Amino acid sequence: MDEQQQKEAKFGFTANAENWNGRLAMIGFVAALITEYISGQGVLHFWGLL
């Protein structure tokens, strides 16, 4: 995909979408670790799913 097509792409596997996906995944992982540390139980137990 050339540069012009990448600028026009709004959906799909674009570099910008992958950057945001990675950032949000890191935030979610850290939030899960903090939840486990503070509550003393896993995230699924914290939410009552297990």
What's a concise summary of this model?
It is built from three helices and no strands. It has helices at 3-8, 15-39, 43-46.
User: Mind summarizing the main beta sheet?
Assistant: none
The run of helices and strands is HHH
* Total E-strand runs: 0
Q: What integer is the average pLDDT? A: 85
Q: How does the helix and strand content classify structurally? A: mainly alpha
**Tertiary shape:** elongated
| Radius of gyration (Å) | 17 Å
Give the assembly state of these chains. single chain
How many individual helices? 3
Helix content: over 70%
Distance between the termini: 45 Å
Unreliable runs, pLDDT <50, ≥5 residues? Answer: none
Beta-strand residue percentage: under 5%
Comma- or semicolon-separated keywords:
50 residues; mainly alpha; elongated
Please provide a written account of the structure.
There is one protein chain. The model has no long low-confidence stretch (mean pLDDT 85). This protein has helices spanning 3-8, 15-39, 43-46. The chain is elongated. The protein has 50 residues and is mainly alpha-helical.
Topology:
Elements: H1 3-8, H2 15-39, H3 43-46
